[in-house]
């Protein structure tokens, strides 16, 4: 059985919350790597109004089987009432990189 991977997108309101969440995900071994992309502007509807906000985007690399735990982890630590947590399947990837993801998430003693 081959391992399935996913890329999870999550926005945060500022650099501090994005950095703290990224580090916590890696330390908890729910993510092998998290890229932080500052300077994102989001336009969305919230409570009946169109809003515009500066945000930081997290690109979270993980195994699909870990997604439920990752989602729960983010929801318990995220400052938003309804955080963006969207998982995209990884259709293909470099075999060494995908192996590295799994090795980070499941280190051998």
UniProtKB/TrEMBL annotation:
Query: What PANTHER family does the entry give?
Result: DIVALENT CATION TOLERANCE CUTA-RELATED, FI09726P
Q: What highest taxon heads this organism's lineage? A: Bacteria
**Could you identify this protein by its name?**
Divalent cation tolerance protein
Q: Name one GO molecular function term.
A: copper ion binding
By its UniProt entry, which Pfam families does this protein fall under? CutA1
The organism of origin for this protein: Methylomagnum ishizawai
A GO BP entry is: response to metal ion
* Annotated family: Belongs to the CutA family.
């Amino acid at each position: 059985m081959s391992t399935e991977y996913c890329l999870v997108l999550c926005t945060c309101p500022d650099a501090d919350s994005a950095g703290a969440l990224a580090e916590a995900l890696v330390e908890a071994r729910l993510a092998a790597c998290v890229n932080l992309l500052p300077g994102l502007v989001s336009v969305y509807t919230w409570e009946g109004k169109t809003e515009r906000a500066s945000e930081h985007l997290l690109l979270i690399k993980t195994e699909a089987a870990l997604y439920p735990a990752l989602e729960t982890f983010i929801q318990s630590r995220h400052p938003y009432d309804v955080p963006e947590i969207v998982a995209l399947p990884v259709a293909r990837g470099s075999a060494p990189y995908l192996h590295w993801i799994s090795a980070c998430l499941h280190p051998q003693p």
